[in-house]
Design brief:
Number of helices: 5
Helix content: 10-25%
Oligomer: single chain
Low-confidence stretches: none
Distance between the termini: 42 Å
Strand content: 25-35%
Mean pLDDT: 93
Number of strands: 8
Structural class: alpha/beta
Length: about 160
Amino acid sequence: MSELAPSVRKVEAALAGSGVSFELRQLDRSTRTAADAASTLGCSVAQIAKSILFRVAEGDTAVLVIASGANRVDEAALARLLGQPVQKADAAFVRERTGFAIGGVPPVGHDRPITTFIDEDLLGFEEVWAAAGTPFAVVRLRAAALAPLTGGTVAALALQD
């Protein structure tokens, strides 16, 4: 394995300090999308814990949703939980609030504390894979560890067709 990027080391340090068991992998292929990650890792798209940052529409508040890679986030459900409308954050806001670029945003290690919600569908898996600081790094975690690790709230956030 080549030397870890500073952003991956930041995630590794956050996880090591948490007491949570994890496996960090640096890959030769990009895991920028859930489909890319699942293909590279040999798991289902649903086992990919994708991190999507939203911005409260009226303000500067960031909200992180950790969702199953198979699901689209129901923004109306998220807005109801927050009591105010949300919109997807742009790349500059994501980097400013998390310290990471889109495609590599992990569940932990952010530059600032972020209100976090976890898609309840992820809890149907024993283990999930999440970005670990770059589009070429991933971390395997127990799904049940996501809420205690992030301080996140588990909620029904999958968009129903």
